Amino acid sequence: xxxxxxxxxxLERVKNLLGAGVRAAIATVVRISGSxxxxxxxxxxxxxxxxxxxxxxxxxxxxxxxxxxxxVARDGAPRLLHYETGSDEETLWGLGLGxxxxxxxxxxxxxxxxVSGAGARILESIAAAGxxxxxxxxxxxxxxxxxxxxxxxxxxxxxxxxxxxxAAELAAQLVESGESRLDQLAGRSVFIDVLRPPxxxxxxxxxxxxxxxxALAAQAGFEVTVVDHRRAFLTPERFPPPARLLLRxxxxxxxxxxxxxxxxxxxxxxxxxxxxxxxxxxLAQPLAYLGLLGPRTRKEQILRQLGTDQPDKLFAPVGLxxxxxxxxxxxxxxxxxxxxxxxxxxxxxxxxxxxxxxEG
Length: 360
Fold this sequence. Notes:
With 360 residues, this protein is of the alpha/beta class. The protein has helices at residues 2-19, 62-75, 112-128, 161-177, 210-220, 272-282, 296-306, 327-343; strands at 24-34, 43-47, 52-54, 79-84, 101-109, 132-137, 146-150, 153-156, 181-185, 188-195, 200-204, 223-228, 244-247, 263-267, 289-292, 314-315. It has eight helices and 16 strands.
């Protein structure tokens, strides 16, 4: 989810840095094994002026990656790094991380060629809000060269037609599954970076408890829209950008809210009639998730009035059982539940897992 926003932010930062004459490099996680903090596609921008953006780990690799990225920014030679984060005895470059995993990171210079070539096409694809893939050679001849597959069209080239064809074919498959991965194609190591638009959350009700929910959901990577019929509640001071604010009553319909399977909705107007009317409109929509704030008896009362049983997509009472107390904790329980639904995971304790953190 954060992959989409992080990539856009980093490329925009690179454009500004180049305009100021500041050299930079981008580090990208291209493969993980075992436990790892970030997934393939996570990016870390390092600039010679000391500024950074994004990250490739929880902080344990950044110091070393930053030092190498500065070298890459200066000499322009891409590098593929491998980190073993196993036991303290399995130290590489003196790291001794004890994380029981491995991470491969590709570091490339963020120069004008990147910005005007693949970078420009990536930003255009993000603006178009459709899924796409970036295929980058990460080792050997042509390292750093990329091509972009978006909307069924291929742009850019690696310099090897056979490799371009193989990369395009695999990228088309991975865009459908949403998986980013490092692969061997035509004798080259190629990272297929798949970017899909993040899920969108629409919050119906702009009360005080909607504020932490909107803020936390945005930080987690959701595109957030807040809907309410009270103009005074829909202000940038209460819901800062990039949250979208929409003045609307349920009887006005859902115009301007094109729902799809990537949409999540939470109804929390604190008025029985408004909750019922919004639920009536939303139950017919192809949502990934529909949450209703309030006790189980309230949900049952509303569903009786609507003359319907509880559909699978209705999460009511909304949120995970965290014994939440107060708007901030309730927001945590709701966002955690939405993240689990988005990932197709049954919520549970990580300590109970017998596999890597990101393995299903």
